[in-house]
Specification:
Helices cover about 40% and strands about 15% of the residues. The strands form 3 sheets. Strands 1-11-7-2-5-3-4 form a 7-stranded mixed β-sheet, sandwiched between helices. It has a 3-stranded antiparallel β-sheet with strand order 8-9-10, with no helix packed on it. Strands 6-12 form a two-stranded parallel ribbon. The longest helix has about 50 residues.
C-alpha cells in the first residue's frame, strides 16, 4: 500500500511527498465538502425563514382562493370552517410544538450569523415575566432565534420557563402561517393575548415584547444604537396589572444585518414614509442585504454578522389591578435604568467601544 501511495506522490520537481503530507491532504479534502454543505444548509435555513414569514401566508391565501373555484373547493371550505372554529386560539395561548422548535434547521439558522443567548441571572419558574427585547432591527432575527427556537438553548438555560414571542396580530389571520407561528410559541402583540398568558394559574410564562415595534426599524442602521422606549409604557402597565416581573434584554449586532436606504428630506419616498407614520404609527423601510449567490452583490439575505442577546436581571413587580400613571412612570424609569446598565456592562465584550452610548428615543 505504501508503495502505491509513494508512486503517486511525486510533485512537479520529482520529489516524493511524505505519507504524513498525503494523509493530511486527504483529511483536508474530506473536510472541505462538509464545510461547503454546512454553508449551503445555513443559506437554505435563512431563505426558508424569509420565505415563510414574508410570503407563505399570502401564497396560501391566494392558493385557497383559487381552489375555491375548482373541483377542489371542499379543501378551502374545510380550512375556512377550521379557522372559524379556531379563530381565538392565537389569543388563548396558541399551540406550541417542541418538535417544531427543535428542528435541526434552526441550528443552521443560528450558525449562519452566529447567534448566542447569554444568561446573566436565573428566572425562577414560580413567577411570570415580560421580557423587553431591544432593538427591533429589520426583521427581529435575534429575538426569533432565541425565543421561538431551541437552537440557543433557552429551555436548558431557563428551565421551567415557556417563552411567547409577541408579534403583529395580522399575521395570525393568514392561512397556514398562523398554524406555523403558533407551533413556535408566537402570540399576537395585543392586550388580550398577553393578558391570557400572564393570567394562567401555572407560572413560568414569559412574554417577549419587542418594545420599539416596527416604528423602531426606521432608526435601524449599522453602528446606530438607539431604541424607542421613552413613550412606550403599555408593557409596564401590563406587568403591573398581572404582577409579572420585567426583564430587559439587548441584542448586540441586531442592527448590523441589513443596510437601510435613507431618503433626503422633501423627497417623494420620504413623504410617503411620513404619511404612513402618521396614519399607522410606523413607516415602511427600504433595506437590502447580500445576494443569494454572492456576498458582494445586493439582495434580501441578511449579512453574516454575530448577534449576542443578553438577558438581564429580573425586576420584581407587584400586582396592582389599576396602577396609577405615577406608578407606571416609576417602573418605567426603573426598567430604563436597568436596560442602560445592561448595555454598558456588556458593550465592550461585543464589538462596541468604551464610549458607545445607547440613545433612548
Amino acid at each position: 500500500m505504501k508503495t502505491i501511495i509513494a508512486a503517486y506522490s511525486k510533485d512537479h520537481q520529482g520529489s516524493r511527498l511524505s505519507l504524513q503530507s498525503i494523509l493530511h491532504k486527504i483529511s483536508v479534502a474530506s473536510i472541505l465538502p462538509q464545510q461547503q454543505l454546512n454553508k449551503c444548509m445555513q443559506l437554505f435555513s435563512i431563505v426558508q425563514w424569509i420565505f415563510t414569514f414574508l410570503i407563505m401566508g399570502l401564497l396560501f391565501l391566494v392558493l385557497l382562493a383559487y381552489l375555491f373555484f375548482t373541483s377542489l373547493w371542499p379543501v378551502t371550505a374545510l380550512y375556512v370552517s377550521w379557522i372559524a372554529l379556531d379563530w381565538d386560539t392565537p389569543e388563548a395561548g396558541g399551540r406550541r410544538s417542541l418538535w417544531v422548535r427543535s428542528w435541526s434547521v434552526w441550528n443552521y439558522f443560528r450558525d449562519y450569523f452566529p447567534i448566542q443567548l447569554v444568561k446573566t441571572h436565573n428566572l425562577p419558574p414560580g413567577r411570570n415575566y415580560i421580557i423587553g427585547s431591544h432593538p427591533h432591527g429589520i426583521l427581529c432575527i435575534g429575538a426569533f432565534c432565541n425565543f421561538v427556537t431551541e437552537s440557543t438553548g433557552f429551555s436548558q438555560k431557563f428551565p421551567g420557563i415557556r417563552p411567547y414571542l409577541a408579534t403583529l396580530a395580522g399575521n395570525f389571520r393568514l392561512p397556514v402561517l398562523r398554524e406555523y407561528m403558533m407551533s413556535g410559541g408566537l402570540c399576537p402583540v395585543n392586550k388580550r393575548a398577553i393578558s391570557y398568558v400572564l393570567s394562567q394559574r401555572s407560572r413560568g410564562n414569559a412574554v417577549i415584547i419587542v418594545v420599539g415595534g416596527a416604528a423602531e426599524s426606521l432608526s435601524c442602521h449599522p453602528g446606530v444604537i438607539s431604541v424607542l422606549l421613552s413613550r412606550r409604557r403599555g408593557f409596564i402597565r401590563l406587568a403591573l396589572e398581572h404582577g409579572a416581573d420585567l426583564v430587559p434584554s439587548f441584542s448586540f449586532g441586531e442592527n448590523d444585518l441589513y443596510q437601510q436606504v435613507q431618503f433626503s428630506e422633501g423627497s417623494f419616498l420620504r413623504s410617503v414614509q411620513c404619511k404612513f407614520q402618521k396614519l399607522f404609527g410606523f413607516a415602511p423601510c427600504f433595506f437590502y442585504g447580500r445576494g443569494l449567490t454572492s456576498s458582494q452583490s445586493k439582495g434580501f439575505i441578511p449579512y453574516s454578522r454575530p448577534i449576542t442577546t443578553i438577558l438581564g436581571e429580573p425586576i420584581t413587580v407587584p400586582r396592582i389591578q389599576d396602577p396609577s400613571p405615577k406608578t407606571v412612570d416609576q417602573y418605567h424609569q426603573i426598567y430604563t435604568h436597568a436596560l442602560l446598565k445592561l448595555f454598558h456592562e456588556h458593550k465592550t465584550k461585543y464589538g462596541l467601544g468604551e464610549n458607545a452610548e445607547l440613545r433612548i428615543l
